[in-house]
Design a protein that fits this description.
With about 230 residues, the protein is mostly helical. It is built from eleven helices and no strands.
Length: about 230
């Protein structure tokens, strides 16, 4: 318990003292995971809607792949992204390995199936008779899609929370493709692993507290938006 108390005090002093290294790591975590989450929404929402409303050969297989992707181990994602971006790999000429771009790509692979799967479930839970009623009223395809997205907006906010939580808290993929380079690719999770490996448990606890605080604040904001009701 004394160790936990020391970690909490260390977290307070790191924040109160305006530690540049800690704030840099925190900002980098938000930038990388925020970018990955935003890209996953841009990719996952249209794909989830297409899978929910479309009828085409292989649809069942595609949905199964999405559901499987929702549970992808981050270390496996990190391995395959590393192979693709390695200097001798097919995309090695881009020289993205051990850069924030590589970390965004790895986190995108983790978050996109989560957003896609939850969007798919959100659209599918809307009754078919609702869509039939909209079509009977003369709604165009674009208007129908807009109404469906509005009806499913609360579950899709949950998809955004799940996607962000899944990527900002993962460590395996970020460590493998980013290399945990100080000032470049070190984020809160990889910095925590490094501190713990060195026996600096007070620093590791402090970084963990910061990570939990960020997750709480972001999810609290999204929850407030999700639960807000118009008068």
């Amino acid at each position: 318990m004394a160790l936990v108390g020391d970690g909490l005090r260390q977290a307070f002093w790191l924040l109160a003292g305006g530690d540049a290294d800690v704030f840099g790591i925190t900002l980098r975590s938000l930038e990388i995971s925020g970018a990955a989450t935003g890209l996953s929404l841009l990719l996952g929402i249209p794909l989830g809607v297409a899978l929910a409303l479309g009828r085409f050969p292989g649809r069942g297989l595609a949905i199964s792949l999405v559901n499987t992707g929702m549970g992808l181990p981050p270390v496996v994602v990190g391995l395959f992204v590393s192979i693709l971006l390695w200097r001798s790999g097919p995309f090695g000429f881009l020289e993205w390995i051990y850069t924030p771009i590589a970390m965004v790509l790895a986190q995108l692979v983790i978050a996109a199936p989560i957003v896609t799967g939850l969007t798919l479930a959100a659209i599918q839970q809307i009754p078919d008779r609702f869509r039939l009623q909209m079509r009977g009223l003369g709604a165009s395809r674009g208007q129908l899609l807009w109404v469906l997205l509005r009806e499913a907006r609360l579950p899709m906010l949950a998809a955004a929370m799940a996607g962000f939580g899944g990527v900002i808290s993962e460590v395996g993929a970020s460590l493998m493709v980013g290399g945990n380079i100080r000032g470049q690719t070190r984020v809160l999770t990889t910095a925590t692993v490094l501190a713990a490996s060195k026996g600096n448990f007070d620093v590791a606890i402090a970084l963990s507290v910061l990570l939990l605080a960020i997750m709480f604040l972001v999810n609290a904001a999204l929850t407030w938006i999700q639960q807000r009701r118009a008068p």
